[in-house]
Structures are given as structure tokens and as C-alpha cells.
Amino acid sequence: MAIPVRHKVLNGLLATTLCVMAACVVQQAGVLMAADWSSSVARHNLSRWAAGKEDFDDTRWQQAHDELIEAIALTPKDATLQDAMAQLYSLQGQAVWTTGAEGSPEIEAYRNAMKYQQASIELRPTHAMAWANLALMHFAVNDTPEALFKAWREAARLGPREEDVENTLVMLAGETWSIAPEDVRAWVEARRPGFSERMQDTAAR
Fold first, then answer.
1. Count of structural domains, the chain
2. Which keywords does the record carry (predicted)?
């Protein structure tokens, strides 16, 4: 996997829509309100950074990090907060990208993102976009094809009719086409007829 291409593809993470915290039972309302308050500015900044409406800022990144840590401490079983923290570290990885080599600051950031994405999946294992994001993170850290495509297949299984999931998986498959297993290629070809031929033409140039 070529490093410049890997950096370009990771822009897909920036476009991931962040979920808002859901309401809970009445007896937990106070805790939820406190967690929502703690994370509200962080989530606002995340959405603007992800949409490209504001430049990434280290100081506000740290503030968002601290706010999300506080919110997670209040409601540790809220998967959307774990997703938000994964997104925050992904944004950091994108912002500090250098070579993509092991030990670089971006790889450390994406490995931290993976920890929170996996925590989100443990809380909400049927969320297809979370699995698609995990596949992207495996790609970001240049992980093994086995790990990458395991997450890829789970996202495909859980979100066969989710447009954002499908687009993410097609993009990722295209960037890893030379190592993509046959079932992955067949899945993409079924949804994007002629995709295999276009990839072959690209490789021949």
C-alpha cells in the first residue's frame, strides 16, 4: 500500500458523520445531561473539522479530548462518545501526517483511534459504519490484510443497504485492490459493475 495513497484515502474518515448522544432512562437523566454538556463543544468542533469548515487546531484538539474524556467517565457505555474520540484521534493523525511509517506520530494517533473504535464496537457490535471506520484505521496503520478485511467484511455484512458504508467500502477496496480477496472484489463488482475492469486498466498504465 503506497503511503501517499493511504494518506489520501484517510480523508474518508474526516467525512464520517458523528452521532449525537441518545436520550436514556429518567433516573440517568442528570448524568446524561452532564456528559452531554461536557462533550457538546468537543462534538461541535469535531463536526466542523470533519466538514472542513475550520482548520485543525492543537489547543482546541486538547480541549475536545479533555471534554470527551470527562464525558466518557460519566457515561462509559455510550458508544457515540467512543466514536467521537476515535474520530478525534483520526483527525489528529490526518493533521500530523508525515511518512506513515511505524513509530510516526500519525500512526500513534490512529492506533489510539482504533482503541476507541473497538470500544465502540464492543458496546454496539452491529453498527456497520463503526466497522467500516475500523477497516479504514487498519489501513491507516498499514495493518495486515487479514485484520483489514475482517473488519471490511463485517461492515459489508451489517450495512448492505447503507450508502455511506457502501461508499467507504468501495473506496477502501479500490485502494487495496492488488491484495483484495476474491469475495471482496465480487462484492464491489456487484455494486459497481465494470469496477474490476477499470482497476485493471489503471494498473496497466
1. 1
2. Signal
Q: pTM (2 decimals)?
A: 0.79
CA–CA distance, 172 with 140 (Å, rounded to integer): 11
Rg from Cα positions in the chain: 18
E-strand ranges in 82-148 read: none
Tell me the HSE value of 80 on the side-chain side, using a 13 A CA sphere: 15
Q: What is the CATH number of the domain that holds 133?
A: 1.25.40.10
